[in-house]
Amino acid sequence: DGGITQSPKYLFRKEGQNVTLSCEQNLNHDAMYWYRQDPGQGLRLIYYSQIVNDFQKGDIAEGYSVSREKKESFPLTVTSAQKNPTAFYLCASRKGGGGVDTQYFGPGTRLTVL
Amino acid sequence: DAKTTQPNSMESNEEEPVHLPCNHSTISGTDYIHWYRQLPSQGPEYVIHGLTSNVNNRMASLAIAEDRKSSTLILHRATLRDAAVYYCILRRNSGNTPLVFGKGTRLSVIA
Fold first, then answer.
1. Which residue of A96, A105, A110 is in closest CB contact with B45?
2. What is the distance between the alpha carbons of residues B17 and B23, in angstroms, rounded to a whole number?
3. Would you say B59 and B47 are in contact if contact means Cβ atoms under 8 Å apart?
4. Measured between alpha carbons, how far is B83 from B78 in angstroms, rounded to an integer?
5. pLDDT, tens digit, 9 for 90 and up, residues A20-79
6. Could you tell me which residues come within 8 angstroms of residue A16 by beta carbon, excluding any fewer than 6 positions away?
7. How far apart are CA A100 and CA A97, in angstroms?
8. Contact residues, chain A, for B91 at CB < 8 Å
9. Mode of pairing for the β-strands spanning B18-23 and B70-75
10. What does the longest C-alpha to C-alpha distance in chain A come to?
11. Residue B81 burial by CB count (10 A; 0-12/13-18/19+): exposed, middle or buried?
12. Average pLDDT rounded to a whole number, residues B35-63
């Protein structure tokens, strides 16, 4: 089945540790995105990538880093510089440009920093 | 992207129709109207989209005002599984710009 995989579903880390969240898609989509969601809030954009080896900061990129070495993969690293990393993280992808294109989301990773 | 305005929450009885409104008074001529929904503890999923004409699919209907400054997502027969947050989003017809999410409307369905 085609889709977006995020692992793990739940992740616990100690404060001060970097942690990398995985996002893989087999939809052959060019663009990939990372969002963060806090309880009761909408999604906020962290980073996005429109092609391999290129990415742009979103609204809340501070304390996060990404890479896009392969079309299928867009890992997100939450660094120790992120002041409040506990949140629900969602990865998404989209095939091409245009207003008719839909964005597909993964199941999310819930990160808790202790 | 132009902004949308939705009620924070709505309630519906099971098996009754639900009309979820969205205002987008600053919509431009090339903006598509998209609706996504997010079930509890899941990623958002696409529901429907339209440009000018009303649209129907297996999940819902989208009614777009003639001046395009508002739209309504219609669930014809709400079920408990439709309880979710519904997001109305405008998408420009160019590029791969990300979806911009507001807070959406939290729909509760009462059995």
1. A105
2. 20
3. yes
4. 8
5. 999 999 999 999 999 999 988 899 999 999 999 999 999 999 999 999 999 999 999 999
6. A80
7. 8
8. 99, 101
9. antiparallel
10. 42
11. exposed
12. 95
